[in-house]
Amino acid sequence: MVDQAPAVSIHGPKVRIAFSGEDVLLRLCLIALALFLLIGLLLPIYTLLSKGLQDANGNFVGLLNFVTYFSEPRASVVFWNSLRISVLSTVLTLAIAGLYAFALTHSRMPGRVFFRAVALVPLLTPSLLPGIALIYLFGNQGFFRGALFGHSLYGPVGIVIGEVFFTFPIALLIVQTSLLTIDRRLYEAATALRAGRLRTFFTVTLPAMRFGLGAASFATFTKVFTDFGVPVVVGGSYPVLATDLYQKVIGGFDFQMGAVVGILLFIPAAVAFVAGHLLQRGRSASVDGRAVVYVPAKSQARDLACLLFCSVVALAILSILVMAVLGSLFKLWPYNLSLSFSSYNFAEYEPSGWGAYRNSLRLSGMVALFGTALVFFGAYLLERVPGASWLRQAIGFCCMIPLALPGMVLGLSYIFFFNSPSNPFGGIYGTIAILVLSTVVHLYTVPHLTALTALKQLDPGLEAVGSSLKVSRFATFGRVVVPVCLPTILRIASYLFMNSMTTISALVFLYSANTKVATVSVVLLNDNAMLGPAAAMSVLIVATSATVVGLQWLLMHGLLRRTQAWRGRES
Amino acid sequence: MTSFKPSARLRLLCAALLVSASVSSGTATAEAEELTVYSAMAKEHFAELIAAFQAREPEIKVNQLLDSNGPIIARLLAEQENPRADIILGASVPGLVMLEEKGMLAPYAPAGLDQIKDRFYDRRSEMPHWVGTDAWASAVCYNKTEGASHGIEEPKRWQDLIKPGYKGMITMPNPNSSATGLLAIAGWMKILGEEEAWNYMDALHENIAQYVHSGSKPCRMAAAGEAVVGIAYPAPGVKAINDGAPLSVVIPEEGVGSEVEGVAIVAGARNPDAAKKLADFAASQEGNEIHNKYYALVARRGVATAVPNYPEGEEAALVDMDFYWVAANRDRILAEWQKRYGTKDEPK
Questions:
Q1: Cβ proximity of B110 and B286 under 8 Å
Q2: A67 to A70, A76, A242: CA distances (angstroms)
Q3: Angle, nearest 10°, between helix axes A372-384 and A486-502?
Q4: What is the DSSP track for A206-222?
Q5: What residue spans define the domains of chain B?
Q6: Distance of CA A55 to the CA centre of its chain
Q7: Listed GO molecular functions (chain B) (predicted)?
Q8: Is the CB of residue A49 less than 8 Å from the CB of residue A124?
């Protein structure tokens, strides 16, 4: 059902008969996009999958590698460890995020804007940061080490706390959206039928949240299952799949087993991806045109409880951030807590020094620039250009794959694919280009969907009008589509920039002598127990992403006033 | 007519965008001489060497990659078909021997090879594939403040570490990623015999809090009080003492395994001339004086100044190690280690 919506717009503007040079060029662009996805995504994955079925000399051995892997008693322990912490973190995150979202949308507590903003802070941080802050808070010398009741931070305890922090905003955003779309009339009906508060919650609120909770739990689960940053810092000797993969490949140079672990990492994400698709299919629109936005009634007791709960959560989030900042300023933790900036003198601790941070800026800038252009133009080709429908559907499907593909798996597959001497693109291995390519592919899906949504809002007759005025499609694209969609383009660019700053998973396999980035530097600093400088570099990353988001917000406001005036006139 | 211009521009843009992803910045092959150095040295030592080398050869641009021994060897192996590194400046000799046996090292006799002690270069071949810079031995770092607060005494012998009082207080590097970890194990095997060494490690395993990724981490964790005892090597502990941490570095009485760290030129290096210059420098008097700031034992004859706060009696405690034995048995030892201790911390 849902699938038919784009189909209409595909066939809609099919008015041309002549096959002009412009059409040929558009087709070529489409083919180029397909080639990009083939080289950047499909072929590397294929290489990885086939590596998993080969022995070290490249002979086909079927599932033998998997049998070997699981015959080690350690392997199943690692797998179950991963599963255990993922389930536990997901349940905790959902409970906290669910209540928090409820408080934000279904109460009148004061400070909701503030609480919403604080909840999104973890989006700005690399997943290494919560682990580092947790060492200062609850490590063997931590300020609150007593709070763990004698448990060691290093291991499942630390991983779960870190993952809850890291995945909280993702779960919150999804659940919040589902809560916002509840029709107020349902509550009015419940009140009219004299349903009690509890009953209303179980018969109206919870069912409405069902899809949101489902989607949020899939998203959280995959995120935790494939995350590398938290366990590498506070995992101690508690092995999970992501750290095991790192150790197999980086530590033990066992690429066959690395491929096996990579495939295992991919499985739950793939299942979640398919399940998510099925769930979405079964869901018909619950909000129709007559739906009324829910406005919570006054209730002091509820508001007080919500305020209390949100304050505790917000305090926890902020204390992790503040702890990282403080940690980066201590002179010699834990014996000399006077403050200094010496940890920011990175050259003292890491040969790349500030160069790693500069590389991160360069990478993020390039990803934002090329990625935005590619994603937006690609989405335009898919959404607004007629013809070649099978090719466009295939490309559309490929654009969704990165969402399910863990970054570490992508990074590993890039080593296999691009470092093979027979690959004509092998030249980009070891340069910043491979980091840019992997990051653009890794982050592709979300901006792609954002661009599609924005493009769908445009009148399908736009190009037809243009061509009737004998204006080329490219001119229409440059003069109408891009300016109209400028806020979306800006949002995509800032999303790409921010996420390139904080991502670690794919890059940890792909960086080279002169392309080390900030997050990799944090991993290496942490590997050498240089906690202060690791905290300092993480703080720098957060500060940069916060600045970019701030800039985007300012620009957006300025732009909206200048370019989006037509929207105001319309309504 | 007017519509032609933007359209042409956009066409170009579109073509450029799709191509640029695969082309950009692959143009690093400029005229300036470059040198890509991989290293598993201690950071301070490496930085000082490179700075001194650059002062001498200012026209060479050095790209540097520093990591633990395991990752550096892993990267070299991964890039075997298409080497990126020109020279390995400081990797443990068993790792270099393994690379040599795969034909990945180019033989080179640096200037002044006659001044290098016998134990410090590859004598299996006519021309050496690797030349050592310094030797280091296992050691134990002990945090005096934390030890006192937990009521644990400073360990004097390896056997002290398996006493129940140390339970959960010790960290040691994972031998899979760290040459330091492998060295400690090889040393125990030399001292105790292989079977007894495994028994010792079984007992030690009960006291280990964490096996960590890098060889310099245990001493730094001990220095920060995250652990009380770290099994590693002296250099990072000595540095921490000089920085003011309440640490002592102990050479256990039974003796310690030692390892040589060496320099080797990669076969198929893109910049062999610059690589040779660096290899010469590492073997020179000036280079060895730098090694000597961090290690008591260096390759060149007659360079032996005492290192401040370096533990005494290291040279006397050294157990003679056979790198070729370690290189040949590495995989077997690691597999056995992984089987026995790879699942530390499974929730009880």
A1: no
A2: 5, 11, 19
A3: 130
A4: HHHHHHHHHHHHHHHHH
A5: 34-135+259-312, 137-255+327-341
A6: 33
A7: thiamine binding; thiamine pyrophosphate binding
A8: no
Contact status, residue A220 vs residue A93, Cβ threshold 8 Å: yes
Strand-pair partners of B136: B259
In CATH, B137-255+327-341 is 3.40.50.300: no
Residues B272-324 have pLDDT tens digits of 999 999 999 999 999 999 999 888 889 999 888 888 888 888 878 888 888 88
Computed on alpha carbons and rounded to an integer, the radius of gyration of chain A in Å comes to 25
| Residues 165 through 184 of chain B touching chain A, CB cutoff 8 Å | 168, 174, 176-177
Strand, helix or coil for residue B88: strand
Interchain contact, B225 vs A141, CB within 8 Å:
yes
pLDDT tens-digit readout, B97-138: 989 999 999 999 999 899 999 889 998 888 999 999 998 889
**Kind and range of the H or E element at B133?**
strand B131-137
From chain B, the residues in CB contact with A418 under 8 A are none
CA A233, CA A137: separation in Å to the nearest integer? 14
The bridge status of strand B256-266 relative to strand B318-319 is parallel
- Single pTM value for the model: 0.84
Give the pLDDT of residue B29. 43
Residue A443, pLDDT > 80, answer yes
Q: One fold for both B34-135+259-312 and B137-255+327-341?
A: yes
Q: Report how far Cα B77 is from the mean position of its chain's Cα atoms.
A: 16
The C-alpha of B26 sits at a distance from chain A's nearest C-alpha, in angstroms, of 6
ipTM of this predicted structure: 0.76
- Residue B77 pairs with which residues in a beta bridge? none
Give CA separation, A184 vs A11, A290, B243, in Å: 37, 10, 64
Residue A26 distance to chain B (closest CA, Å): 9
Pick from A181, A275, A174: nearest CA to A216: A174
Structure tokens at A359: 């590389």
Candidate from B25, B66, B74 with C-beta closest to A249:
B74
Cβ–Cβ gap B224/A351 under 8 Å: no
Interface of A with B in 264-323 (CB under 8 A): none
CA distance A367 to A443: 10
Overall average pLDDT of the A353-363 stretch: 95
Listed by number, the residues of chain B in 9-38 with a beta carbon closer than 8 Å to a beta carbon of chain A are: 9-11, 13-15, 17-18, 20-26, 28, 36-38
Q: Over the stretch A72-131, which tens digit does the pLDDT of each residue have? A: 777 888 999 999 999 999 999 999 999 999 999 889 999 999 999 999 999 999 999 999
Nearest CA in chain B to A255: B78
Residue A181 main-chain phi, psi, to 5 deg: -90, 5
The full set of domains in chain A, from first to last, is 83-284+301-335 (1.10.3720.10), 348-385+445-563 (no CATH)
